[in-house]
Every structure is written in C-alpha cells, then in structure tokens.
Design a protein that fits this description.
Helix content: 25-40%
Distance between the termini: 17 Å
Low-confidence stretches: none
Shape: elongated
CATH topology of the largest domain: Alpha-Beta Plaits
Order of helices and strands: HHHEHEEHEH
Number of helices: 6
Radius of gyration: 19 Å
Structural class: alpha+beta
Largest sheet: 4 strands, antiparallel
Mean pLDDT: 94
CATH architecture of the largest domain: 2-Layer Sandwich
CATH superfamily of the largest domain: Lrp/AsnC effector binding domain/regulation of amino acid metabolism (RAM) domain
CATH class of the largest domain: Alpha Beta
Strand order of the largest sheet: 2-3-1-4
Number of strands: 4
Length: 152
C-alpha cells in the first residue's frame, strides 16, 4: 500500500514521467535518494509504470477500438491466456453486466480488424463479441492521482 509521500511522488510523475527526481525531491522537501528509492519500489511492486504513451493514429494504427466479450467461464483462463498473446490487445478488464471482458485494441487496417475479430471469436469458450471503433478521442488523461488524494 502506498503512503502520502508515495502519492505525492506519483502525482508529479503523472504530470511528467521524465521529471527529474531532484526536482520532485525539492518540491516535496525530501532528498533525491528518497524519491529514487520510493519510485523504484513503486515500480517493483507494480503500483506504477513509467512508459511512453503514444497516439495510436500517429504510430500507424488507423483503427482503435474496444471489444466486449461474453465467455463461458469454464474457459476463462485459457481465453485470457490467448488474448494476452495477441499483439493488437493492450488492455483487458473483467466486467459486470452482460459482457464479461473488455479488450482495447489497435490495428492498422480493416483487414487486420477482420483477422483480429475472427481470431477472438473462434477462441473456444467465446460466446459472442461486440466491437466498437473509436472515431475521435475527446479526452485522454493520466493524472488521476491516487485514492489518498481523495482523503485530504
């Protein structure tokens, strides 16, 4: 579990993942080694990732979308294992409601979308899917803070 100092460090990194630890330390009134150690621990424990988030369209992916998948839960683990291997898929979540999984994907073309859709739909235990394409991104933010921010 993170503490208040971790939360404050995360807020700075959400604004700029390349922000120097020395600047974060100065802003928070702690030492640079403290920030470095905390960030390394947060990464090691899987609390944060520091990655380059690109615009899929500018990176050659002409189609971005979501696919909601209804599955036979007896096949859930093998389905998840196969979906995790698919290069097109960058996000998988379990849902409540009529569909069980949500996938977010990027593909280069309609032919690639067709191929991807067929591969998902032919997995043993997939009952049906519902695919939606993104036609415009109205907001994309990664600065949601932490639950500790809500308490203060």
């Amino acid at each position: 579990m993170i503490d208040l100092l971790d939360s404050k460090i995360i807020r700075f990194l959400q604004q700029d993942g390349r922000m120097p630890y020395s600047r974060i330390a100065q802003e928070l009134g702690v030492t640079e080694p403290t920030v470095r150690t905390r960030v390394q621990k947060l990464i090691r424990e899987g609390s944060i990732q520091i990655v380059a988030m690109g615009d899929p369209a500018k990176l050659g992916f002409n189609l971005t979308g979501t696919m909601k998948v209804e599955v036979d839960f007896r096949n859930l683990q093998p389905i998840l294992a196969e979906l995790k291997k698919m290069n097109e898929v960058w996000y998988i979540s379990m849902l409540t409601g009529p569909k069980d999984l949500e996938l977010r994907f990027n593909v280069k073309s309609m032919m690639d979308l067709k191929d991807f859709t067929l591969r998902v739909n032919t997995l043993e235990g997939v009952i049906n899917t519902e695919t939606s394409l993104v036609v415009g991104i109205e907001m994309m933010k990664y600065e949601w803070g932490t639950a500790l921010d809500q308490e203060s």
